Amino acid sequence: MLVEELEASTSIIPSIDPMIEEIKEAQQLDAVCQEVQNLIIKGWPTYKTDAHTAVHPYWDVKGHLTESKGLLLYDQRLVIPSNLRLKLLDRIHQAHQGIVKCQARARRAIWWPGMSKQIKEMVQGCRQCRINSPTPVEPLQPSTLPSKPWIKLGADLFEFQKKNYLLVVDYHSRYIEVRRLDSLSSAFTVDKVKSIFSTHGIPEVVISDNGPQFSSREFQQS
């Protein structure tokens, strides 16, 4: 388990926890962590340029950084030194839960500059995560409204109470025409379409679901 699900805070994780001790020792050996802790105790300079370049990634979040019981914390989360980050990334990622869940799990307890970006890159580069992730759904694209009626039509077949029907919709006015189909053959469907066109005129475009009746030679030549 990732340090009791990585809910890292000295108030809720005992200091004897081996992972906490490992992180604490790593912080003590890490020059950047030590410099940040010194700045917390002694005070940050007025200007970022006056601080050592190694601590610049911590500058914008300095108000969240504290020191408690020898541990460097970001709010109630442990600051992870550079030499332990790959190890923690591996533990966060071991269940292959995807970017959002991995980031949420990490944010419960640990922090370092650029952590969320590294988690995202790690998951995106994982073959198992790509297999587990759902296929994205293409967003629906709104159709362009024609300038006048009966230029662009939609056509489809549907069944109601065990009977088949042809539905034609005008994209401009939303006016509909419905014809009952005694047969689902292409020839019979074309005859019904022609009867509608003879009343209202021939449109420039007909949009269909490419069913066999609409993709047949009879319909294409109608």
From TrEMBL:
Source organism phylogeny: Eukaryota, Metazoa, Spiralia, Lophotrochozoa, Bryozoa
Record's InterPro entries? Integrase_cat-core (IPR001584), Integrase_H2C2 (IPR041588), Retrovirus_Pol_polyprotein (IPR050951), RNaseH-like_sf (IPR012337), RNaseH_sf (IPR036397)
The Integrase catalytic domain extends over 145-222
Q: Which GO terms describe its biological process?
A: DNA integration
Q: Where is the signal peptide?
A: none
Q: Could you tell me which SUPFAM superfamilies the record lists for this protein?
A: Ribonuclease H-like
Q: What name does UniProt use for this protein?
A: Integrase catalytic domain-containing protein
Q: Name one GO molecular function term.
A: nucleic acid binding
Database matches in PROSITE patterns: INTEGRASE
